[in-house]
Backbone:
């Protein structure tokens, strides 16, 4: 080839690359440390602690946990199938009710796909029918005029469509239509800053549907929705580089990595986001196993769409447990944390003294034991979710919001948030 032609070709390739979302490699030790965080969670194979997202994240990562991983999948199958297909008595138990709900079932189907399993058996077909039934119910809840909203959220709605799609199961046009309408009319954005997570999940679902389109009439709307989502997510990039916040960035990157080269400067935006991610990983911002499970695929240049044709033979490095840091010999410093609840009468405000490094959950426990305070939680895949405060339970579409005084929503849950000395944490009952 003539040198000029070769140069033009090369600059063309480089130009297209600049328009693609590519993750630069990050230090393998950092990735390994994240994987090591997951290991203790994989020992928790009691039914209520099982988390299919951890399995999916690990299988799409560059790391493996050997037999621990096999045992984990075995436990997932045992507990999920028992609950989903089991007897009436297992369905009465509350843990089974959680497992047989929409989002966890969708994640379980993704976990099966991560092990290169297609659901084809009679039992498998029942799981698919159940997920389709959930979606039909959600569709009814949204209503003909799109005035309602899903019982769960557009996040779980999208996740369920994605799970059916990667198993190449048909999703009814009217179900897809509701999600298209929500994205076209910003209905999902009623859920505040979490809209980037929802958009990314919807974007992944649409990108999968685009590849297995059953009804070609829907194609133009799906393609437009994917473009709209990409634009929205790129617009949501913060000056630090995050799409939304640091915890929505992994899913946003999963979606953007599936984008074809486009006129927008996608490549530069993704490079900035990955630099921010790397800094946050180094600062220890990723401790929560669910968050790590959404991040690990990105660091291995994979997305949930790789579950369409997963590579189950890909070499992955064996994880070895981290060497525990010896406990500090000194007695930790005591810090003060104030707890403030304005959504009750009379308002509650009290200061507690706890060891430095205590979590917000430790503060709540101390308040419960000594400060005339009560609270309740429900275990979720992200950890303990606060459901009641001072006897006030959340109602339909309400939640107890965690705030850094005066008005900044926390980006972590009660188990992960570590208040600083002198900090005031607010708990506020809000609608979403
Ligand atoms: C929808 C959603 C919500 C909804 C949940 C209600 C509903 N019926 O769906 C609402 C708006 C209430 C909500 C609240 C909060 N959320 Co939220 N939420 C999500 C979202 C978009 C999807 C969760 C989901 O459905 N997962 C799939 C299903 C299958 O899993 P699941 O475990 O069964 O789902 C339940 C839990 O996830 C729980 N939940 C939702 N958010 C959170 C956050 C924490 C910390 C915990 C423990 C549980 C929890 O509600 C889900 C439905 O029951 C995720 C996005 C993501 N990337 O994961 C963020 C996300 C998990 N939320 C987040 C945060 C920070 C919160 C809040 C702490 C915000 C605040 N300052 O108050 C609160 C929780 C406070 C509390 N009471 O404990 C962060 C967590 C980051 C982290 N470091 O772990 C995420 C990743 C969003 C983000 N990018 O910042 N959330």
Residues:
């Amino acid at each position: 080839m003539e040198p000029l032609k070769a140069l033009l070709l090369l600059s063309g390739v480089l130009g297209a690359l600049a328009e693609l979302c590519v993750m630069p490699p990050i230090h393998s030790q950092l990735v390994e440390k994240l994987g090591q965080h997951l290991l203790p969670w994989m020992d928790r194979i009691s039914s209520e602690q099982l988390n299919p997202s951890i399995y999916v994240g690990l299988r799409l990562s560059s790391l493996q946990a050997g037999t621990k991983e096999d045992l984990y999948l075995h436990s997932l199958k045992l507990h999920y199938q028992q609950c989903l297909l089991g007897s009436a008595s297992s369905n009465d138990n509350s843990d089974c009710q959680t497992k047989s709900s929409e989002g966890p079932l969708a994640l379980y189907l993704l976990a099966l796909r991560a092990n290169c399993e297609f659901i084809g058996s009679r039992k498998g077909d029942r799981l698919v029918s159940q997920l389709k039934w959930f979606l039909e119910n959600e569709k009814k809840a949204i209503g003909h005029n799109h005035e309602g909203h899903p019982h769960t959220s557009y996040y779980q709605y999208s996740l369920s469509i994605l799970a059916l799609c990667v198993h190449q199961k048909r999703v009814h046009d009217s179900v897809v239509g509701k999600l298209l309408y929500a994205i076209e009319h910003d209905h999902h954005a009623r859920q505040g800053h979490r809209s980037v997570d929802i958009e990314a999940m919807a974007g992944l679902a649409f990108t999968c549907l685009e590849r297995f389109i059953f009804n070609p009439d829907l194609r133009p709307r799906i393609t437009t929705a994917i473009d709209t989502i990409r634009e929205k997510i790129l617009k949501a990039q913060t000056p630090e580089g995050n799409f939304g916040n640091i915890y929505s960035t992994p899913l946003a990157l999963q979606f953007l990595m599936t984008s074809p080269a486009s006129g927008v400067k996608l490549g530069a935006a993704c490079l900035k986001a990955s630099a921010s991610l790397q800094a946050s990983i180094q600062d220890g911002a990723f401790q929560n196993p669910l968050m790590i499970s959404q991040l690990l695929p990105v660091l291995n240049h994979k997305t949930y769409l790789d579950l369409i044709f997963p590579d189950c033979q890909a070499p992955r490095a064996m994880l070895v447990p981290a060497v525990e840091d010896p406990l500090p010999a000194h007695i930790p410093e005591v810090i003060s944390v104030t707890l403030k609840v304005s959504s009750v009468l009379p308002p509650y405000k009290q200061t507690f003294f706890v060891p430095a490094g205590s979590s917000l959950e430790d503060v709540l426990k101390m308040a419960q034991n000594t400060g005339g305070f009560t609270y309740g939680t429900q275990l979720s895949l992200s950890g303990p979710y606060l459901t009641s405060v001072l006897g006030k339970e959340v109602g339909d579409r309400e939640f107890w919001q965690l705030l850094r005084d005066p008005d900044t929503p926390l980006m972590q849950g009660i188990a992960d948030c570590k208040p600083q000395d002198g900090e005031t944490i607010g708990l506020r009952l809000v609608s979403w």
